[in-house]
Amino acid sequence: MGVILIIEDSPASATGHSRRPPVKTLTDHLANYASYHRDRRNVATHFVGIPLIVLGLVVLLSRPTLNLAGVPLSPAMGVTALALAYYFALDLFFALVMTALFALALWLGAWSATLPIPIWSAIGVGGFFIGWVIQFIGHVYEGRKPAFFDDIASLLIGPLFVVAEAMFLLGLLGGLRSDIEQRAGSLRA
Questions:
Q1: What's the pTM value of the predicted model, to 2 decimals?
Q2: What is the average pLDDT score of the chain?
Q3: How far apart are CA 98 and CA 80, in angstroms?
Q4: Could you give the C-alpha distances from 142 to 37, 70, 169, 180, in angstroms and in order?
């Protein structure tokens, strides 16, 4: 008598484990990020630090520019397009908000690129560096390392977290807030 081995072509094996990693949703990413940010003082530092980091990076990547058919293109535009593609894959609403915010950042970057190099670099490096200092001060309050030490995707989730927290402060997206707090816990004073 022989043994017949049946292999099913299903997403889960006989042990119930998925053969490929599950795709994380926006809520998954935000809840994971929020679990590293439960101290209100830390969250407050992120409202300043993350925009400074993003703006600093966009400013620094706004040089050099290449004119293609009269349209100035910069590395900042390419990096922004990649980030926005990721955001659109996660959530349309947040992607549209981030598109508007990145448009402002790109405008500031393009403006700063017209300034003398010392001023342009001071704006970019200064914003980037000061933003990270503020972030690390926040994590002293939190008593926990930043999320990106464990999940590099958190570098892209940070700006979404700030937008989500701003929406929560405005009384919007209560369902998302509840889902995140259920997974990560409530904010601490």
A1: 0.84
A2: 89
A3: 10
A4: 7, 48, 20, 18
In a domain, 134, yes or no: yes
- Asked, for residue 66, whether it belongs to a domain, the answer is yes
Domain that residue 121 falls in: 26-184
Residue 43 lies in a domain: yes
CA dihedral 102, 60, 53, 137 (to 10 degrees): -170
Task: Give tens-digit pLDDT for 130-170.
Answer: 999 999 999 999 888 888 888 888 899 999 999 999 999 99
- CA 15, CA 18: separation in Å to the nearest integer? 9
The pLDDT assigned to 8 comes to 47
Residues 44-76 as b or e (16 or more Cβ within 10 Å = b):
ebbebbbbbbbbbbbbbbbbebeeeeeeeebbb
- Determine, yes or no, domain membership for 16: no
